[in-house]
Amino acid sequence: DKLLTYFDATHEANPALGLRSMRLTLKSPDILDRQLRAILLAAQGHDNIRIMFPMIGSIDEWRQACRRLDACAADVTAETGAPCRVQVGTMVELPAVVELADAFAAEASFFSIGTNDFIQYMLAVDRTNENVADYYCPHHPSVLRGLQRVTAAALRRNVEVSVCGEMGHDPRFVPFFLGIGIRVLSVDPDFLPQVQRVVASFSMSEAEAYAAALLAEDTIEGARARLLDPADAT
Q1: Which residues contact 184 (CB under 8 A, 6 or more apart)?
Q2: What is the pLDDT of residues 71-112, one digit of tens each?
Q3: In what order do the strands lie in the sheet with 160-164?
Q4: DSSP 8-state code for residue 234
Q5: Does pLDDT of 43 surpass 80?
Q6: Burial of residue 174 (number of CB atoms within 10 Å: 0-12, 13-18, 19+)
Q7: What is the Cα 115 distance to its own chain's centre?
Q8: What is the pTM of this model?
């Protein structure tokens, strides 16, 4: 998401749909290899290091990135004499991944669902644009069902799936995530006490019933009516 100070990036009319993230590094493999080698060298002697590829939209891109990683790992092992042990996962940010979730789960070690971008791309809404801000809707049925499908695919393969982004600390959605099987939330420390209170206030059966009720709604208004009041949730 952040431009490299040493990279001569061209101005784009719509950078959110342009050359960014994994697209940029796959197009400039020297940058990608430099970053991967740095991680692999830092990981020497550790077995809890993870590498996550962002903004992946196809199995082809995923495998291309993994091939770059494998090549870098072979080079680092040849230099150091020590094997490279890292887990490799993918960010889930693009709607394209929903239909391919089973295929990704067959190959990735873990998923991390980036809800901010997932919503933005699912609904074609720039949340920073006040003209369309009302269309940025986390409780849109397509968003909720997409999250559930990705999670279900991961759980079928025993692949860890976590959630990051603003939905992850929203008290209206924490029980929804619990109900669809999410057990890992990436939360800013400021929100931890609130999230802990929400988690403690729901039984699993209650969370599952809440998630099922939201997923059954076909309309935005219907889902909105089912949402917990934030005050009640905390």
Answers
A1: 160, 161, 162, 163
A2: 999 999 999 999 999 999 999 999 999 999 999 999 999 999
A3: 49-53, 86-92, 110-114, 160-164, 184-185
A4: -
A5: yes
A6: buried
A7: 6
A8: 0.90
